[in-house]
Amino acid sequence: MIKLHGVTLSNYHNTAKLALVEKDIPFEEINQMPSQEPDVLASSPMGKVPWLEINGECLSETNVIFDYLEEIKPESPLYPADPFARAKVKEIVRVVENYIDLPARRHIGAVYFGGPVDDVAFKEVRPALEKGLSALSRVACFAPYIAGDAFTYADIAAYFQIRFANLHATKIYNWDISESMPGLRDYLAMLCERPAVAAVDSVMQEALENFLPK
Question: What is the pTM of this model?
Fold first, then answer.
């Protein structure tokens, strides 16, 4: 059985977890924080979570995990069959990771651990997120899913990466980013009606509520 190593606080852990659930692939969840310890680095080269363990071999990076899951269970596709449509799904995944999730990470210390807000980050992150949302608006179609009429890996990535960024934007700027892009709030609400999304997200939200500074 596949083992998923990670922590329920992590949006990327939950991205991989939801992919496994949506593909109906059995897995065991192993609690593991990111670490620079040698045993973790032997499994995940940057010490990040999540990673998959398959028959003693390890595989990290969520985009790679998506591709692996698609190969081992093609009968439950989360990529389109058409090569161009598949590439567009991957494009959307990169946009939400690089231009929405990544800028928000500069506030992790303040949001997750109650540290001071960095002055430079405070000035730079919101414009970066606005630019990322603008980029997303040019590739998203919400018809009704983010890449078209079928639920794909792009929806999985978008849900957790946008929710992650919104947590940071709300706490630091009192800004709900889902209101900054037409259709985004309704899209996220629609995704949360999927049983698998709701189930995975509820566990993450409970973990965040218990962990985040009050």
Answer: 0.97
User: Tens digit of pLDDT for each residue in 188-200?
Assistant: 999 999 999 999 9
Q: How many residues does the chain have?
A: 214
83-211 in CATH: which number?
1.20.1050.10
Residues 58 and 51: their CA atoms lie apart, in Å, by 7
Alpha-carbon distance of 146 to 13, in angstroms, equals 21
Residue 214 pLDDT greater than 90, yes or no: no
Locate 191 and state its tokens: 């995704």
Q: Give Cβ neighbours of residue 148 (< 8 Å, ≥ 6 apart).
A: 80, 85, 141
**CATH architecture classification, 2-72:** 3-Layer(aba) Sandwich (3.40)
- The region that residue 154 occupies, defined by phi over 0 for left and psi between -120 and 50 for alpha, beta otherwise, is alpha
114: left (phi over 0), alpha (psi -120 to 50) or beta: left
Region(s) of the chain under CATH 3.40.30.10: 2-72
CA distance 31 to 9: 10
Query: What are the DSSP calls for 82-102, one per residue?
Result: SHHHHHHHHHHHHHHIIIIIH
CA dihedral 214, 5, 11, 66 (to 10 degrees): -170
Q: Which of 54, 207, 52, 78 is nearest to 146 (CA)?
A: 78
Give CATH 1.20.1050.10 domain extents, the chain: 83-211
